[in-house]
Amino acid sequence: MPNNIKEQIQTDLKQVKETGQLRTERIREIVKSAVSQVSSEFKEGSSEIRTLVKDAVAAVIESIQGKGTEIKEDVTASIEGALEGVNTKRHESIAKTQSELKKLQAQLDSEEEQLQQDVDVILAEIEETGQEKTDGTKTVIDSAVNNIKNSEEVSLLKKRYAQLQAQLAIVRANLAARYGGRSEEVKVYLDDAKNWYNQARPQAEAIATQVDQKRSQLENKLSEAGTSIARKEHQIKQTLRELLLTAADLFKDKEPVDKERETIHK
Questions:
Q1: What's the whole-number mean pLDDT along residues 90-105?
Q2: What is the distance between the alpha carbons of residues 116 and 201, in angstroms, rounded to a whole number?
Q3: Which spans in 87-207 are helix H?
Q4: Which residue has the higher pLDDT, 260 or 148?
Q5: Contact at 8 Å (CB) between 214 and 250?
Q6: 122 vs 179, more confident
Q7: Which of 57, 173, 198, 264 has the most CB atoms at less than 10 Å from its CB?
Q8: Rounded distance between C-alpha atoms, residue 28 and residue 75, angstroms
Q9: Which of 123-127, 151-155, 199-203 has the highest mean pLDDT?
Q10: How far apart are the first and last CA of the chain?
Q11: Is pLDDT at 195 greater than 70 in this prediction?
Q12: Using an 8 Å Cβ cutoff, are 39 and 48 in contact?
C-alpha cells in the first residue's frame, strides 16, 4: 500500500464524493486512516514518513481542484489528518507516560501531605512545651509557631505551583487537539486543569472584582471545552485556544501578584 497511498486516498475520496457526503471532517478521517495504516510499516521520524505525508496531502489537492475557496479548509483537513495518522503511536505512548506521571504525582502529593502532617505534629509539641514557660516566653513561642504555620511564602508557592500546573494541562490539551490526540486524551488534560485550578483558587478569594470576573470566564471556558469534546474538531480547537488565552490572562494578573510580593517583603 505505501506506493499506492495516493491512489487509495483518491479512490476513497471519489466514493464519498459520489454519495454527496464529502465534507472536511470526512477528508480528515480518510487521510488519517490511510496514513495510519501505512506509517506503521516505517520508523518514526524517517524520510519515508515525511514522503508519505506529502503524498497523502498531494492526493487530496489533486482530488479537489476546482473547488474554489473551499480548497483551503480541505487542504488543512488533509494535513491534520496526515499528522494524526502519523502520530497515532506517539499519542498512545504519550497517554501511557501521562498515566505513569499521574501515579507519580499522586505519590508525591501523598508524601508532601505526610511531610506536612509531621511538621504539624512537631509544631504542636513545641506549643505544648511553651505552655510550661513564663508568659513572655510562651507568647514568643506561640508567635513563632503561628508565623511558620501561616507562612505567606508557602501559600504563594503552593498557589503559583497549582496555577502553573493548570496552565500546563491546558497547553497539553491544545497540543493534543492540534496534533491528533484522541478526545479522551484531551479530556484528561482538561480534568487535570480543573483539579489544579481548584487547588489554586482558595488561595486567591480576596483579590479584586475584575480578577473574579476573569476567574468566572476561565471556569466557563473549562466547562465549554469539556462539553465541546464531542463536537466538531474545529470548534474544539477554537474553544481550547480561547481557554488558553483566558487562563494566561488570569494567571498573569498584576494586582494580586504585586500584593503578594508586598506581603513577602514585609
A1: 83
A2: 20
A3: 88-130, 135-149, 152-178, 183-200
A4: 148
A5: yes
A6: 122
A7: 173
A8: 9
A9: 123-127
A10: 70
A11: yes
A12: no
Q: Which residue has the cell 507568647?
A: 139
- pLDDT at res. 70: 65
Q: Taking the CA of residue 165 as centre, how many other CA atoms within 13 Å lie in the half-sphere pointing to its CB?
A: 20
Q: Which residues of 125-161 are buried (b: 16+ CB within 10 A; e: fewer)?
A: eebeebeeeeeeeeeebeeebeeeeeeeeeebeebee
Query: Of 141, 203, 194, which Cα lies nearest the Cα of 166?
Result: 194
**Grid cell of 243 as nine digits:** 481557554
Confirm if 179 and 53 have CB atoms less than 8 A apart: no
Q: Which amino acid is at 132?
A: E
198-234 pLDDT, tens digit per residue, is 887 754 444 434 445 556 666 777 777 766 665 556 6
Burial of 169 (0-12, 13-18, 19+ CB in 10 A): buried
Q: What is the rounded CA–CA span in Å between residue 32 and residue 59?
A: 13
What are the cell numbers at 239?
A: 474553544
Q: State the CB neighbour count (10 A cutoff) for residue 204.
A: 18
What pTM does this model have? 0.60
HSE-up (13 A, CA, CB side) for residue 110: 6
Q: Give me the mean pLDDT over the 148-171 stretch.
A: 80
Please enumerate in sequence order all residues whose Cβ is within 8 A of that of 189, keeping only pairs 6 or more positions apart, or say none.
169, 170, 172, 173, 176
Q: Which of 147, 244, 238, 256 is nearest to 190 (CA)?
A: 244
C-alpha cell at 205: 478569594
